[in-house]
Design brief:
Elements lengths: L1 H9 L2 E7 L5 E7 L3 H6 L1 H20 L8 H22 L6 E3 L4 H25 L6 H23 L28 E2 L26 H9 L16 E2 L10 E4 L9 E4 L4 E5 L3 E5 L4 E9 L10 E9 L12 E6 L5 E7 L10 E11 L13 E3 L3 E7 L6 E4 L3 E6 L5 E9 L6 E9 L12 E6 L5 E7 L10 E11 L3 E2 L4 E8 L8 H5 L5 E4 L5 E4 L24 H10 L10 H4 L12 H9 L1 H10 L9 H29 L3 H27 L4 H5 L1 H10 L3 H13 L11 H24 L4 E3 L1 H26 L4
Parallel strand pairs: 8-15, 9-16, 17-24, 18-25
Antiparallel strand pairs: 1-2, 2-4, 3-28, 5-6, 6-7, 8-10, 10-13, 11-12, 11-14, 14-16, 17-19, 19-22, 20-21, 20-23, 23-25, 26-27
Helix pairs in contact: 1-13, 3-4, 3-13, 3-14, 3-16, 3-17, 4-14, 4-16, 4-18, 4-19, 5-6, 5-16, 5-18, 6-16, 6-17, 7-14, 13-14, 14-19, 18-19
């Protein structure tokens, strides 16, 4: 629940005025929270809250008594475990020969430097400045370091000295392959679409997400599995949304996003002839030779294709380089009258090198009806609905696993939208032509009354990784009674297999909506049309406060939308406590379609009812994350964590007494392991799911810094002020903690050097299995040395 609140807060977006490369004023939709600031503040509270709260609770309980060592020891032990053990676990999680690097290297270096300084600062306070005493000045300087760390990381990310980076469509100087500007496609004042340059000009991140997904996203997957889970993810890598007006036309901007699909953005305008790629993403074997990418043209409503058409295209580098990985192409496709498909052919260059998957893009740069062409198309405007498609070059010879992109879709429609599109995805390989059958099944919706029953076959050509099934909807059902149907996959052929998500639920919701004629009205904060949100639902976009998070309901009734029912959400949240949720689903752990009963293991049932008391207490106290932007959920869950941490504090102290361990050893080993175990599992998921190492290990250094600056800064500030008012000194004996901190600084520095060397030879994570186990072995050895030497010191042996 705590992570739900954080993800809801970070998902808030609004419209901002920006300048593009041409100096034109454009409106872009961006997250309210910068991803770096969110990572180090809100996300750190999520991943580091146990350590921070443990230290704070222990300090509050010890007011007027001798200070304890469990909280500070836990912070030191967690830092060593986080950096050394989690990095070791992540580097062995990748397949043989695959590499992953930290992409936001400047931010990582900044937070790494702060993480080392944080523990050096602990030595300054405990030993060098005022030995065995913490003053008010030291406490507030520690909190000030947290502000400085956030500010320095933000400046490094934004690079204000590079004015080009502050323009829409500009590439990051720190990472030329990074997405340009977080947000959605820009609109120039007056309603004209903005023209952007660069390979990633149309890339857009999900509101609240970073260019890479954060560790909190993956911890959220492990802990919550709520329907409003962001990322997530689900990134990798994010959904887009938002409407943009163009003159008097009704133009809806939909952004289709599946895991690893890149920058596919589709503009839909049924009044114009449209040109787009057949698939949202392609993947080909390196040995495929010449590959073909299908381009299709779609007639306007009530129109036809009785005229010729010219479509211009070119290739653009991603991390694949023309001349090294593929042969660059640029040219024109000529569609004859009545012809709906053409192919762009690109030659893939094969080599014998072991390397990670790379990608490039095929871009449609324009389309027009030739001058003097006969037929109805003369003078007709043609819309390039999908300007680019991502081509991934892989070494995979598997036919792939087919399933639905999402377990549930909610489709809002009226007389202007009478269809639903459901996306199928093909993962773990894309070699060869495969097919899969689909069929609709009635739930509360009835075929022939609420929708047109469908049964057919979906074809994935070689290299295609996504396909769409369109369902025709009818207008006969009662709007107040939402109805649902199921779409089921079966009979895969061509070597493909069905994944876990072989069924999905489609809920029909009837709503009214209007579209703005231009972006100026959008900037005023009014409705913008339909958008595809993270859970796959089509909903009304925009609000008078700059748009809430994707997939979130508003807390008040707005025109054309149903009000958010707090008590119904809260009731459902409590009822869900009694439903066991066992096992991870593919791609982030989302479950099967709701109409399909899930199998639950005995272990899942036992854990469910062992934890049911805690679940009832917490789910009863904590309000839904969708309410009021997530802030009540966040604050209430934070208060609950304080109570739980109090019990952890008592249990840790009692266990140490029983087995005869000193409090400092309990803190750096058992308690540190317990508080960091969820992050270990989340980091391993991130290492496998993300295209880079940022979410897996890049966030560790920032989290370790926050552990000190907040985990010690907050209790120091409270206690030092308390004793200052009483005219006493706040005595905090360093004891064996001095040695543990100094030892961590040495071991952490060695760990940074090991990862830097690994990066130089391919990437921080992965490589051959021999290399993976060598790197992991070195990191684990450093951690064991840390524990052994700390223990010997604690018991007076060294």
């Amino acid at each position: 629940m705590f992570m739900d609140g954080i993800m809801s807060i970070c998902a808030t977006t609004r419209l901002y005025k920006r300048k593009n490369d041409k100096g034109e004023t454009v409106y872009v939709r961006e997250p309210v929270w910068n991803w770096v600031v969110a990572n180090i503040t809100l996300m750190a509270l999520g991943t580091s809250s146990p350590e921070i709260m443990l230290s704070l609770v222990e300090a509050l309980l010890s007011l007027g008594k001798p200070a304890g060592e469990l909280g500070p020891s836990c912070i030191a032990g967690s830092a060593a475990y986080n950096f050394l053990v989690i990095s070791a676990v992540c580097t062995t999680a990748l397949p043989n020969g695959q590499f992953k690097k930290i992409s936001q290297l400047r931010v990582y270096i900044t937070t790494a430097a702060w993480s080392i300084w944080a523990y050096v600062w602990m030595l300054v306070v405990y030993v060098w400045w005022t030995p065995d005493e913490v003053t008010v000045a030291e406490a507030f300087i520690t909190l000030g370091f947290f502000v400085l760390m956030v500010l320095s990381a933000y400046i490094v990310d934004k690079q204000p000295w590079n004015k080009r980076n502050n323009r829409v469509g500009a590439q990051s100087a720190s990472d030329p392959e990074a997405p340009a500007q977080p947000g959605v496609a820009a609109v120039i004042e007056g309603g004209r679409p903005a023209e952007s340059s660069g390979a990633d000009a149309h890339h857009a991140l999900a509101p609240g997400e970073a260019p890479v997904k954060t560790l909190a996203h993956y911890r959220h997957i492990l802990a919550a599995r709520q329907r409003n889970a962001a990322a997530a993810a689900r990134r990798h890598h994010g959904g887009h949304g938002g409407g943009e007006g163009e003159g008097e036309s009704e133009l809806t901007l939909l952004a289709f996003s599946a895991a690893g699909f890149g920058d596919a953005v589709v503009r839909v305008d049924p009044t114009k002839e449209q040109v787009m790629f057949r698939s949202q993403a392609y993947a080909f074997l390196e040995s495929a030779g010449v590959v073909r990418v299908a381009v299709t043209r779609v007639p306007p409503e009530g129109g036809n294709l009785d005229h010729p058409l010219r479509v211009h295209y070119k290739t653009e580098d991603g991390d694949a380089v023309a001349g090294l990985d593929y042969e660059a192409r640029e040219g024109t496709l000529y569609f004859a009258p009545g012809e709906s498909y053409k192919y762009v052919e690109v030659r893939i260059i094969d080599d014998d090198m072991t390397e990670p998957d790379v990608h490039f893009c095929v871009v449609l740069t324009g389309a027009e009806v030739p001058p003097g062409a006969a037929g109805k198309g003369k003078g007709q405007e043609v819309l390039v609905a999908q300007e680019r498609v991502r081509i991934t070059i892989v070494d995979d010879d598997e036919a792939g696993v087919i399933g639905f992109e999402l377990p549930e879709y909610e489709v809002a429609f009226n007389e202007k939208r009478t269809f639903a599109e459901v996306t199928l995805v093909r993962r773990r390989g894309a070699d060869g032509r495969v097919t899969v059958d689909y069929e609709t099944q009635d739930m509360t919706a009835v075929a022939g009354t609420d929708y047109v029953g469908a049964k057919g076959t979906v074809v994935f050509e070689s290299g295609e990784k996504s396909a769409r099934v369109r369902l025709q909807l009818l207008q006969s059902f009662v709007p107040e009674a939402h109805k649902a149907l199921r779409l089921v996959l079966s009979n895969p052929e061509g070597g493909a297999e069905l994944g876990k998500r072989r069924a999905c639920k489609v809920t029909l919701v009837q709503r009214q909506f209007t579209l703005l004629p231009n972006a100026a009205a959008a900037a005023a904060g009014q409705k913008e049309g339909l958008e595809l949100v993270a859970n796959g639902s089509l909903k009304l976009a925009g609000s008078d406060n700059g748009d809430k998070a994707e997939g979130q309901e508003q807390g008040k009734e707005e025109e054309g939308e149903e009000p958010f029912d707090l008590w119904a959400e809260w009731r459902d949240q409590i009822v869900s406590v009694f439903s066991p949720d066992d096992g991870d689903d593919d791609e982030g752990g989302e479950g099967e379609g709701e109409g399909e009963q899930q199998k639950v293991s005995w272990a899942g049932l036992i854990l469910q009812y062992v934890n049911i008391t805690w679940k009832l207490i917490l789910f009863t106290m904590v309000p839904p994350a969708k309410w009021r932007g997530g802030y009540p959920c966040f604050l209430t869950a934070l208060a609950s964590i304080i109570g739980i941490v109090y019990l952890v504090n008592e249990a840790g102290s009692l266990f140490g007494c029983i087995v005869g361990l000193k409090e400092v050893m309990v803190g750096i080993s058992i308690v540190a392991l317990g508080t960091s175990l969820p992050d270990t599992l989340a980091s391993r998921i991130a290492a496998v799911a993300d295209p880079d190492a940022d979410a897996a290990i890049g966030n560790i250094t920032g989290s370790n810094s926050v552990n000190v600056f907040l985990g010690l800064g907050l209790p120091w500030a409270v206690c030092s002020v308390y004793y200052r008012v009483r005219g006493e000194k706040y005595v905090t004996p360093g004891g064996d903690l001095e040695f543990a901190i100094m030892l961590y600084a040495i071991m952490g520095g060695c760990g940074i050097v090991i990862l830097a060397i690994a990066r130089y030879f391919g990437g921080e994570l992965g490589g051959s299995k021999v290399r993976q186990y060598c790197v992991a072995g070195l990191l684990m050895t450093l951690w064991l040395l840390y524990l052994i030497l700390s223990g010997l010191r604690a018991y007076g042996n060294i």
